[in-house]
Fold:
Amino acid sequence: MESAASKKPCCERVGEFFKSAKFLIYLGHALSTWGDRMWNFAVAVFLVELYGNSLLLTAVYGLVVAGSVLLLGAIIGDWVDKNPRLKVAQTSLVVQNSAVILCGVLLMVVFQFKVQLTTLYNGWLLTSCYIMVITIANIANLASTAMSISIQRDWVVVVAGDDRSKLADMNATVRIIDQLTNILAPMLVGQIMAFGSHFIGCGFISGWNLFSMCLEYFLLWKVYQKTPALAFKAGQKDADDQELKHLNVQKETGNSENPVEGSQLMNETAEVKKNTSCCYQMTEPIRTFKDGWVAYYNQSIFFAGMSLAFLYMTVLGFDCITTGYAYTQGLNGSVLSLLMGASAISGICGTVAFTWIRKKCGLIRTGFIAGVAQLSCLMLCVASVVAPGSPFDLSVSPFDEVLKHLFGDSGSLRESPTLVPTIEPQIQINATVFEEAPQVESYMSVCLLFAGVIAARIGLWSFDLTVTQLIQENVIESERGIINGVQNSMNYLLDLLHFIMVILAPNPEAFGLLVIISVSFVAMGHMMYFRFAYKSLRSRLFLFCSPEQKPDPNIPSLPNSV
Structure:
């Protein structure tokens, strides 16, 4: 028998979808990520332009962002947990967009009056502007982190309800939106800066964020109205119950004349005063940081989360490092833009494959299959290290380039290609491009490298969605924020380590070693997941065979996670 929903006319069902909370979340997320991707692309270009085509300010900005999330991830997550959902989302939205708008206006002033600012106070005023830009941009990134935790890790779960298939579909759709905006948004702002100017680019981004903030604010309110469950939050409710209980105890004790109860009240009052003292308040962030990492370690999905973090310790992605190496191997900006497009398509295929495999095999087994697929594809990258055309040479010390920059050069220039990065907005890719690609003897090595990187995106994004949903399903509601905050910190920590690894071995001859190290970390990450999956599936099989056995609280117990 057909359901009532299937009997409705097609136009009516389409209209209901566009009015649903699910679509409104998609629309709000698309607006948010579009602004984020434009800003993340543009701020790197702006900082390079401001500092005379030097990457110094960009490197400092990247270090500040990574360090801030690493230290404050747990605290941000704890703030998300302890406050009402609508307040968290709207506050994060306003702070993030206001910071981007302010930063854009400040950059417009700097670009317009840079010559005058250079001469004032011996250039210290311009330096102060640089510091303000990086600081405000970092605040925007922290607010974006809070927004991401709130919407993608909490609101999506509540809107999906108890339907795990709906949750998987929503996660996959959100990730497809991420993939598309990651390609299209930088193309738009790059064209604006290419045919206009950096001043116009700053103005456009500021105007977009002002428009987007107002519309997203309205969309959040509509989703909140359409989903009554968002008004009830486990952690907030428990805190309110504890406070009410404490007030009732104080009231009952105050009306009693029992001296023993009176002394207990005095002790409780003294403890409250102690907890509200200045020192206690100052050390609260440290305790939150510690409690967050301890709670993360005690989670049943700890090894699954760690496995995802280890995938960030890699040079096998489309960032400035890989594109820089591609230049040394003879690839130009046009070819790189096509490769990035292929990478985005591969990532979308991975999100679609996730939903299909999950329905057939279950969530945990989907992660296992995705891990095997990713590792198999990365074997092409390992093969590229020894393939014809590879510059890999163990006789060249990976520290030669570092020592040359630190202590100077003996006189003669190296014969190997020297990277001369320039920002060229006309190229429609979110990467650093170069003036002229050098000629190489064979393209076999670089073809194998990028074939492995692009193919591995299918397994990578399927695995990412698997771990994301495992965290959503198995972390209790009152700890979603702090656990996801620590997860973000772990991701940034491993990402920071991979940049340090490149700094220590920057020459093309050592890139093959970086590839091997990257694949090793990916393999270790998947070994952690395999351990988690084996333990979880074995426990479920044992419980299925022994109905009298009490479930282990350390094992995820949702039947749809199998």
Q: What stands out?
A: The longest strand covers residues 421-422. Residues 13-231 form a domain with the Growth Hormone; Chain: A; fold (CATH 1.20.1250). The mean pLDDT is 80.
